[in-house]
Amino acid sequence: MDNKRLRKIEVEYRNSWILAIILFFLSILFPIVTFIITCELKWNTSVFLAFPLVHLWWFAPARAGYLPFFIRKLIYHPSLMKRLFWLTFFWPFLIFILLLVDYASNLWVTKALFTSIFFLSGALSSIIASVATVLPLPLLARELSSRFLNKIDVEALGFTRERVIMNGFGERFYNSPEVLRKGLPILIGNRTKRAVVVSHIMLGVTTLNVPLNFETKSGIGPIEYEEEWTLPEWVVIESRSSQILYIPWQKVMNASKRAEEMTQKVRKRPRFHVGIYDPFLNRKFWSKEINHQSLLQEFSYLEWVKKHPEWGRK
């Protein structure tokens, strides 16, 4: 992947975050400020004046896929997506009509709202602002829970992790050559409420500090090199359970050597990750960063043990 395409991914990822932050703050802060100013300064304005930008929070998660809302499953419900699209498209026009009606009726709707519930008059601005803020929270909570609580964990052995401290400072690793000869073991933990099916395992390498699941509008991802291994049989990991899978060392070495070549080329260590693919969800789940140089050293050690089987038997 050339530098121009890499730069495009980084710029688009940065711009998507800036756009999401701007839209989110416009949709939340604008109604709050409008209500506070209206109530504190006693302006004779319509209550609907605070709502033209509320719908923007629907587009705030656009950085994840340029779709409204947080739910990926909406992709498979085109009729609902179409309704949401037209709602967001006509939302400003709808608010404009309500503003005209309210002003034509001498702010009858606004006065009815402010006077009918008299006991809320002291806290009306904060309550209405809170309602406008809380609207996106159920979907946001669902997204956060799926990201941090109900998630798929892909873990590699401890010696492969990036560490701050050096070997010899309280770290101890016990090698098991007999087990590692089967391949590099990865532990897959399923903390979701449904079974996960693993059909492929990927070894991804990238020099970009961009989430691995991010894709540009053109579908380009940050992975610069990917070594793929197709499992002979699909593995089912039940809900709230875990399982160990072994990646052939040949696949691991191919990706590790490519990562080492990239290290020599760019003069910095690239990010190395292990991922699994679920064909039913059509999603990839990636591990934390792995030190590919540790993998190279471990494989060299296994090769040495294979050539010296008598070593350590006594």
Largest sheet, spatial ordering of strands: 4-3-6-7
Q: What is the SS-derived class?
A: alpha+beta
Shape: elongated
What summary fits the major beta sheet? Answer: 4 strands, antiparallel
Distance between the termini: 51 Å
Query: Whole-number radius of gyration?
Result: 27 Å
Q: pLDDT below 50 for ≥5 consecutive residues: which ranges?
A: 62-70, 117-122
- Summed up, the domain count is 2
Number of strands: 7
What is the averaged pLDDT score?
78
- SSE arrangement, N to C: HHHHHEHEEEEHEEH
Number of helices: 8
In terms of DSSP E residues, the strand content is 15-25%
- Helical amount: 40-55%
Per-chain topology:
Layout: H1 3-41, H2 78-104, H3 108-116, H4 124-134, H5 137-149, E1 152-155, H6 177-180, E2 184-190, E3 196-206, E4 225-237, E5 241-247, H7 249-266, E6 271-278, E7 283-286, H8 292-307
Helix pairs in contact: 1-4, 7-8
